[in-house]
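Support case: user asked for a sample of complex input and structure output to validate their parser. Sending the pair below.
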Amino acid sequence: MKTGPSRNAAIAALGLLLGFSLSQMGFTDYDQLHAMFTFADLRLFLVFVGALGLTAVGLRFVARVPGAAAAVREPRAIHPGTVAGGVVFGLGWALSGACPGVLFAQVGEGRALALFSFAGAALGTVSYRFVHARFFKWDRHQC
Amino acid sequence: MTGYWPWWLGAFALATVAVLHPLLTGRLFGVSGLFSRALSPSALKEERALAAIGDMEKAMLEATRAEFGEAAMTVAANDPPAPEPSEPTIAPRFSFRASWLFIVAIAAGGALSAVISSRFGTTEMGNVHRALFGDGALALLSLFGGGFLVGFGTQMTGGCTSGHGLSGCGRMQAASFLATAAFYGTGIVVSLVLASVLL
């Protein structure tokens, strides 16, 4: 499936499912996220670990499907930003409660304050390009 | 409890997205990459260029029809069929429009959830966030600044909880295990420090 209405319908359906689920499971709730990070409540940790396990199994099957195999087999390179960027992201996540998917779900939930997080995330995303080109310059292994 | 889903239902839902995404779109599930595409002027230019090529093809076909008549349009039908394109070795990226479609759909899903749970529209970020950062400028700074770090950091590491956490770790990629350990570990440490210092 390349481009076309059926692919767009799939994209829309997947996005709807993601936003709905993240909200219903409480990933969009800062209190819940904080409880996860401080080990006060393991529920969201189990969500992540469980999702990871199921995804690992599912992707093994997807690896054999033409059209999807290329994506599944693409290797991820380790580069200087891999760990450092993770630390920066983790700090931001603990402060704002919003990883990217959660952020859009929060905006959809009508959380007015999430618009500040959205504005910051947009600026951060765009700023990275300049900083990387000017200062970092390592190979990110992206075509 | 607050009425949120049990862990196994959340896990199943996220895994469903992560597995169906490459099957239905040809691209691995990863949100930060899409956000970058959605904010990329070159992605927009790329999309406009492709649309212009499509227009040009249409114009050329019409000019052919006008010049040589309907009979000329069937000549191509007698040519040997073009060879089937081989399997791509690189996954296709989302277009500018597809990226926004996904993002808006996520928001719509959040809206639907909030409406059926009767909590649509709030100026709250929760009791813990208020206890940590208050109601005023510091709270807004934590959100804007935290958001900035999320946007910057996900670009720097090349993924987020979906791209690295699920799609990357799910494929046993070392880079993703490193990145996921880094962002989860940092989230834990920072939250514990915040809780002990400010709560």
